[in-house]
Amino acid sequence: MARTIRYFSALSFLALAFMACEDTIFPTLREAEPILVVDAWLTNKPGKQTIRLTRTQPYFENSLPPGVAGATVTVTDQNGVVYPFAETASGVYEWTPSGSEVFGQVGLRYDLSVVFGGETFVAQSRMGRVPAIDSITFFREEATQFSDEQYLAEFWSVDPKGSGDAYWIKFFKNGVWMNKPSELITAYDAGFSRGGNFDSANFIVPIRRAINPFDEDPANEGQFLSPYVVGDSVYVEINALTEASFNFLNEVRIQIDRPGGFAELFSTPLANVSTNVANTNANGSKVVGFFNVGAVSGLGRRFKSLDDLSGE
Q: What beta strand segments (E) does 119-248 contain?
C-alpha cells in the first residue's frame, strides 16, 4: 500500500512540475515551398458550384491562404459532358447552371482537371446517394450539475439498403453553419464506421443528436447553454461522400480537434492528411486537397413553442 501511495505521489509531483514549467514558445520553423491546395466539394444542390484553389502557408501565418489565379478548371462526367469553372475572384472558380439545370447525377463518375503553371492536376469522384430526412424533433433534458434544463434537437433518417454509403452531416442554427472541429459529423451507413453493421437502419442516436451545439455559459463557468430555445431554427443537411472522402474528413477531424495543454502529450501526433488529387507528372509539383461529388438532402424546422417538444 505504501508503495502504491508513493507511486501516485510521484505521478502527482510530475504532473505539477509539468504545469509549473509551462511556457509559451514561438519556435522557428523551416520555410517550405507553397503547395497547391484544391478544395472541390461539389453537390447536386440547385445553384452555382464552387472550386477554390489556394496555396499552403507557414504554420503560424495568421491570415487567409492566398488564392491561385489563372488556372483552367473543368469537371467532366463519364459521358463526356464538360462543366467549365470560370474564375470569378482570385482562387475562386464557379460553374453557373443554365435555368433549372443542376450539377451531377447520382451514380456517375466525374473527373476534375486543374491546369496551372504548365502542369495538370487531376482527381476522380463518383456521386453517391443520400437518404431523405424524414423529420426533426425537439425534446427536453432535465437539469444536471453541468447545465440547467435544456432543449435539444434530433433528426430522423433511414440509411438506404446496401452497405457502403458514407455521409457528411452538416447542421445550421438560425441560418449559421455550425462548423467547429467538434461539430464535424460523419457517418458510414447509419453508424460511425465501416463494419458497424448499421445498413438500412435509422441513424444511431449519437449521430441523430450530434446536431446540438453545446456552448459554455459565459455567465456561469462550467455550465452549458441550452442548444436551442424557443424561436431558434435548425437545418440539417446530409451530403454523400466517397469512402476516400469519408476517411479524409475523419483524418482532418483528428488533426484539428486537438485537446491542447498537458493532454496534447497523449493525443494523436500531428500528420499530413490524405488527398485524392495528383499531378499527371509524377516528378512535378506536389498538390494537396480533395475532390468529392455527392448528392444532398436537407430539412429544416423552427422551435416555435414548448408544444413542439416530442412526447409532451
A: 119-126, 133-141, 150-157, 166-173, 176-177, 185-188, 233-241
- For 181-210, letters b (16+ CB in 10 Å) and e give eebbbbbbbbbbeeeeebbeeebbeebbeb
Nearest to 121 by CA among 36, 33, 245, 247: 36
Please name which of 126, 122, 120, 133 lies closest in space to residue 105, comparing C-alpha atoms.
126
Residue 250 has pLDDT above 80, yes or no: yes
Distance CA 25, CA 121 (A): 38
C-alpha cell at 32: 517550405
| The C-alpha cell that represents 123 in the structure block | 482527381
Residues 6+ apart with CB under 8 A from 8: none
Q: Which three cell numbers stand for residue 7?
A: 507511486
Is residue 3 within 8 Å of residue 253, measured between CB atoms? no
Bridge partners of 241, per DSSP, are 166
Q: Map residue 147 onto helix, strand or coil.
A: strand
pLDDT score at 104: 95
d(CA 214, CA 50): 30
Asked if the model's pLDDT at residue 264 lies above 60, the reply is no
Alpha carbons 11 and 188: distance in angstroms, whole number:
40
